[in-house]
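Ticket closed. Logging final result for LysR family transcriptional regulator.
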Amino acid sequence: MNWNTVSFDWNQARAFLATAEEGSLSAAARALGQTQPTLGRQVAALEAELGVILFERIGRNFTLTPSGLELLDHVRAMGEAAGRISMTASGQSQSIEGQVCISASDAMAAYLLPTVLKRLRESAPKIEIEVVSSNALSDLRRREADIAIRHVRPEQPDLIAKLIRETNAYLYASSAFLETHGRPTTPEALTDLDFIGFGQADRLIAALNGAGLTLTRRNFRVGSESGVVGWELVKHGLGIGIMAEEIAALTPGIERVLPDLPPFTFPIWLTTHRELRSSRRIRVVFDLLQEVLG
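Final structure:
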């Protein structure tokens, strides 16, 4: 296509089309929300550009010349195409639909994500959500998920990460467990009590002992790789467990152990692939996760 031959000004063509269909400059100006002199200048500029007369003025009305009639069908087709483009663009900007895959730890997926997804269903009902519940890191570069909620910052340069906040975790036990074994008041009082293991026991023991406890593997006779299962074991009185305070707050029959013990703090990162951040449905979900979880 020879682009040098394409010098048509759509604003001038629209002024011509509106005048032809409305029958006068004043009516066309009202239809387009412009002033009559502005519209008249656009029509005159189009006539000068094409080197033809498009209208004959009879009284206050404009009548198309033969050249104007010949041009009208082509400009009307342009107007219809412009309308379709506008409608398509508007529809894409207003209609948010498609699938979004969210990866999160099983505890967060089970206890915190439902609130987010309920809000999302209300605000963007056409978005389809798949939740990948895993305590392993999903590979966003291989599209194992569109958005990941992590407790570690990603290092890959092609990923976008947003630190939405830091959260605190504390020691908890069921009221029934504490009524049976007593409510400890010092770290030393925990030495002979049962704990629930989450994931790698040695790492958990090191973290707890770093906070002033004196625990060994003897204290961890029951555990699970699943945070949800581990929390259920705590709820059923099988031992003391560590959990994020917002999840514990949702759980009846649970008490905080050693309230004066400093919290275990960890970050919450939202991560997505750089290319996906430009997707409107990804952005809507990303922003809502940031709002609710933050």
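The first strand starts at residue 55 and ends at 58. No further action required.
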